[in-house]
Specification:
The complex is a heterodimer of chains A (83) and B (412). Chain A is of the alpha+beta class. Chain A has one domain: Translation Initiation Factor IF3 (2-Layer Sandwich), CATH 3.30.110.40. In chain A, strands 1-2-4-3 form a four-stranded mixed beta sheet, covered by helices on one side. Chain B is α/β, with parallel strands linked by helices and 412 residues long. Chain B folds into two domains: 113 residues, Oxidized Rhodanese, domain 1; 242 residues, Ribonuclease Z/Hydroxyacylglutathione hydrolase-like (Metallo-beta-lactamase, Chain A). In chain B, strand 13 and strand 14 form a beta hairpin. In chain B, helix 4 packs across helix 5. The N terminus and C terminus of chain B are likely disordered. The chains are: A alpha+beta (83), B alpha/beta (412).
Chain lengths: 83, 412
């Protein structure tokens, strides 16, 4: 079963640092407690979202998933706005 | 000082530019913006320690606090980093693929620093190869093909228009280009052993060249899985000779680092694989059987150091760029290494049991990825390019811990 989310942000095809930079802006538009699902094709985004969630004071990384598609892996990051 | 190959660029260095500067011991400062694990695992290292700082870009973004990456870099550096950055050295910004560090370098330039970006990032650095002629005679020519980011060394040995490639690395272009440039046909491809730290290019180079691939059969069995390799290979055995044009390569079975490790000898040149390196010797534990293999290894090393004549050692790895001679070649007379190689000094000093103890007390941390890399080399796994690059990230840790004591790298 997939993780619940409130808004989807499509960062597929974007390379570092844009998935994180743009997702961070999107988070700012959410209500407190809402979850943003970010989908990205940049493999580095997996470790980067983990590292970023540790330093950012207003988010929690709820889950991460990897989906294998014919076009390659898609990485999903579920980020909750907490403050 | 050698003439500069190209005009200096004050905004971008390629991997080749970086290598030239490392070899020349140019002074510069490294700002690595990858995450901390990646930095700990592999960083750019020079002939002498490079001053460096690691700040993950997402920390700059978050703590810089701006929506825009460039603005965040400027804010972060002004507030948090300025005291740690030298104003009189070029600052090399480095990330995984070169995109983020480009923005970081731009931000630093906006603040007045002389900052350059490493084009293509660590990915390009890891793919950078260098070919050097060690000997270029018609009767015998030896080329050392190195991959500096990983400390991997391989060789093309040519004679009479024919060549054998020893320990081919994963990217084949350097060998194919070299063979074409010097006008030789690759007639055989050999691995000194089943590698743990990197993915061998042996099988694919052999296929591309229509040449057989050779390995010792003991290394045709994965030491942890106890499963026979599925790659096509011909068996090497001790005492066998491989003809290359007008010369022959003699096979010496020297178990220790692996059970099927071999060295190749032609004339006074000894391709030692992972046994004797320049500063150190190889570790005996990557097959998970250090206690069993260490005594074999001692005997193998005694056999190598007992070889008569003025042998030149051509190793399978280096741990630090400063192991190269002034011409950048990783090669040294065996007689000289007996006087300065930490492992060979221990071999000379210790009893058989004492040497086993020395080996077992000198094991660096085990790298978990090495089990899977051996699976790839046995043919059990076929990773796509990205997975292969991730498996191989980080420099090799094939030597005993003494090799890493002075490098300042993350390996020990």
């Amino acid at each position: 079963m997939s993780q619940a989310f409130d808004k989807l942000f499509d960062a597929r095809g974007l390379s570092c640092p844009m998935p994180l930079v743009n997702a961070r802006k999107e988070i700012g538009k959410l209500e407190l407690g809402q979850v943003l699902k970010v989908v990205a094709t940049d493999r580095g985004s997996v470790a980067d979202f983990q590292g970023w969630a540790k330093v950012a004071k207003n988010v929690e990384l709820v889950a991460q998933e990897t989906e294998t598609t014919e076009a390659g892996n898609v990485y999903a990051h579920y980020v909750k706005r907490t403050a | 000082m050698p003439a500069m190959a190209k005009p200096p660029n004050d905004e971008t260095w390629t991997a080749a530019d970086l290598f030239e500067r490392l070899e020349r011991r140019d002074k510069f400062f490294l700002l690595d913006v990858r995450n901390r694990d990646e930095f700990a695992r592999s960083r750019i290292e020079g002939r002498s320690p490079l001053p460096a700082v690691n700040v993950p870009y997402f920390e700059m973004l978050e703590e810089g606090g701006q929506d825009d990456m460039l603005d965040s870099v400027v804010a972060y550096v002004e507030r948090n980093l300025a005291d740690h950055l030298p104003s009189d050295l070029p600052l090399l910004a480095v990330c995984a693929k070169g995109g983020t560090s480009e923005i970081v370098a731009q931000g630093l330039r906006r603040l007045g620093y002389a900052s350059v970006n490493l084009a293509g990032g660590m990915e390009a650095w890891s793919r950078h190869y260098l070919t050097r002629a060690l000997l270029a005679g018609r009767e015998l020519a030896i080329y050392q093909v190195s991959r500096p980011a990983r400390g991997c060394l391989s060789y093309l040995v040519a004679s009479g228009g024919k060549a054998v490639v020893i320990d081919a690395l994963r990217h084949l272009d350097p060998y194919l280009a070299l063979a074409q440039n010097i006008g030789v046909t690759i007639e055989a491809v050999v691995d000194t052993h089943s590698h743990a730290d990197h993915i061998s290019g042996g099988v694919s180079l052999a296929a591309r060249s229509g040449a057989p691939y050779h390995l010792h059969p003991y290394d045709g069995i994965h030491p942890m899985d106890l499963r026979p390799a599925t790659i096509p290979y011909q068996f090497l055995r001790d005492g066998q000779t491989l003809a290359v044009g007008r010369i022959a390569l003699e096979v010496l079975h020297i178990p220790g680092h692996t059970l099927g490790m071999v060295a190749f000898r032609t004339g006074d040149y000894l391709f030692t694989g992972d046994s004797i390196f320049i500063r150190s010797i190889a570790r005996p534990d990557l097959g998970g059987k250090a206690e069993t293999w260490a005594p074999l290894y001692g005997r193998s090393l005694r056999r190598l150091v007992g070889l008569p004549g003025g042998i030149t050692v051509l190793p399978g790895h280096f741990s630090s760029l400063d192991e190269a001679d002034d011409a950048g070649r990783f090669a040294a007379p065996l007689e000289e290494l007996k006087k300065r190689n930490d492992g060979l000094l221990a071999l000379e000093r210790e009893s058989e049991e004492g040497f086993v103890r020395y080996l077992l007390e000198s094991l660096p941390k085990f790298i978990p990825e090495y089990v899977d890399i051996k699976r790839v080399n046995a043919g059990f796994l076929e990773p796509a390019e990205e997975e292969a690059a991730i498996l191989e990230s980080g420099k090799n840790v094939c030597a005993l811990s003494q090799a890493y004591a002075a490098s300042g790298g993350g390996a020990s």
